[in-house]
UniProtKB/TrEMBL annotation:
It comes from Gaiella occulta. Keywords: Lyase. The lineage of its organism: Bacteria, Bacillati, Actinomycetota, Thermoleophilia, Gaiellales. The keyword Ribosomal protein does not apply. This is L(+)-tartrate dehydratase subunit beta. NCBIfam families: ttdB_fumA_fumB. Heterotetramer of two alpha and two beta subunits. One of its GO terms (molecular function) is L(+)-tartrate dehydratase activity.
Length: 195
């Protein structure tokens, strides 16, 4: 397992190819908060996102915040939400908008492996229940767009030392989630055979 420090948005897609499933990653720069309603607006309703997502790292979240001025928010708690229900948007995010990394809770199913490999994307795993730590690693909410979808807006966070994250699915077709499921399936067969 290697450790990488990656700054987002990335401009060189080869940076993503250096990451292998199981590697540890610390993130600097900016990450974009996104959730179901935001992606439904983009893909199901055909509305172009009001920010550049090229090279972006998307975090599946709907944060708890406090409004301090028009268009300005301070963080209260910024955690992750379950990713699997949003897997259908993966290909569009990579192919149409150049997104390079996604992170959420619970992983992505196997259907995400092929498009992530073809489009040069990764899925990052984060420790569950670590919202308090994540919140401290987000230095500032710099921008909030589509506020009418609150809290499922588009959020631009500036982060410092965000992580550690684990590469759950890499851009080479490897998935820790697939491997764990395969081992569990084999173990189950072994246990049934003993009965």
């Amino acid at each position: 397992m290697a450790h990488h420090e990656v700054t987002f948005p990335i401009t060189d897609p080869h940076e993503i190819l250096k990451l292998r499933a199981g590697d540890e990653v610390t993130v600097q720069g900016h990450i974009i908060g996104i959730r179901d309603r935001t992606q439904i607006r983009i893909f199901d309703q055909g509305v172009e996102p009001p920010m550049d997502l090229s090279g972006a790292f998307l975090l599946h979240t709907a944060p708890n915040v406090r409004k301090v001025a028009e268009g300005r928010y301070e963080k209260i708690c910024i955690g992750t939400t379950t990713s699997a229900r949003m897997v259908r948007f993966t290909e569009g995010l990579g192919a149409q908008y150049g997104v390079r990394a996604i992170c959420g809770k619970g992983g992505f199913p196997d259907v995400a492996i092929e498009p992530m490999q073809r489009l040069g994307m990764v899925y990052f795993a984060i420790v569950g229940g670590a919202a308090a730590l994540e919140t401290t690693q987000i230095e500032e909410i710099e921008e909030v767009l589509w506020e009418e979808l609150m809290p499922e807006c588009l959020w631009k966070f500036r982060v410092k030392d965000f992580g550690p994250l684990i590469v759950g699915i890499d851009a080479h077709g490897n998935s820790l989630y697939h491997d764990v499921q395969a081992r569990a399936h084999d173990k189950l067969k072994e246990l049934y055979a003993r009965l």
